[in-house]
Amino acid sequence: MLEVMEWLEDIDYSYDVLINLDSDVLFAREGFEQYILNEMKDKDYMGVGTKIPDDDFYCLVQLRQEIDQWIPLLGNEPYWESFNVGQVYSRKLVLRFLHDDQYELLKSNLHDTRSFGVDEIVYVTMVERLGYPLHAYPENVASTVRYRPHFPLDEVVSLVNSQPESFLIHPVYRKLKDEARSFIREAMKRKIQLSPDYQERFMEEYLGEMPYLIRRSRYNGAKIEWLAASEDEGLLYWRENQSGRTKDVLFGPYAFGSEKIEGLTALEGKFGNLEAVCRSDDRLIHFWRDEHSGEWFQSEQFAEGVTGMPAFLESSYGNFEVVAPLKEGGLGHWWRNNDDPMHPWFGAEVFGTEQYDDVILVENNEKQLTAIACKDGKYQYYVRDDHNSWEWNGPYE
Question: Of 117, 128, 151, 300, which is most buried by a Cβ count within 10 Å?
């Protein structure tokens, strides 16, 4: 953190606050930035669980093993603790750190220490020793930041349902396909699809109805592509080439299909092509783009009696899996056998009885299909008993 402070000042970067975040943090909803700006209007420091630590606090026990090198900097106990994730410093406080008489001692101690987690004691204690008031996050925000265990899907769903202040969740496994990350990522994409305000916020120009963004792994994330429903009929497709030498260029739209599309979702499949599942009226249709020719093709209709927005993924088994709300209530599940050269679709397997507005499909960390359905703004989820009965169990909240 000290190196970041130095770097920001070296490049003369203009900022209001500096926040420490780890790579196993998940932003669960929008609003954290504005929340911090509001909270920090009359503060210079804020942290999670800011307090005098218990005598057996592990980081304190570790620091005591090097107490001779820390007493000249921090003085004698009591010290303070604050969880590393989410610590917030005003720029005024950062400048105070960098220009303090003991700055070189702080820097060398942090460089030489062998103790675990001293940054959860040293920085906050330094703030207090410099005469700045200490503040802790309110519990309704701080409760979603902890050391262990990692947040599983069921807790994240519960937080999204019941805790509007769950901006920041820690820890979440550092895996792109982690169940919690997959759920939040798809939920945010749905917000972009369904809200004109979100569309305007995330895109510089209007890109059709219900835009769906795909960052291509085939090109190591250096190429972004969009699908959107045409206002009239069919689909529109754009792609963006990103290059460090030239300005990014957006190509499109390329129009295809003849049905009025009312719901869409897409992915990059194991065949290297873009694959899309769309709802037209109460039917589900599959489109795919041949990566070599660049042409879009339409497969046969494989489902009917559906409503809302379908959910679509390629499972760890290599099959395409689709779940969609049904007009008569409940959810339907279809799957395509990608090992069969004919690529047949199977289903629907019907589960649940509620009238759902929307559904998100992920694989949980046990490689089980998990459908997270939305009703009146609240989520419920179902888990398929993969490898055993293959039945869908739930709903759970």
Answer: 151
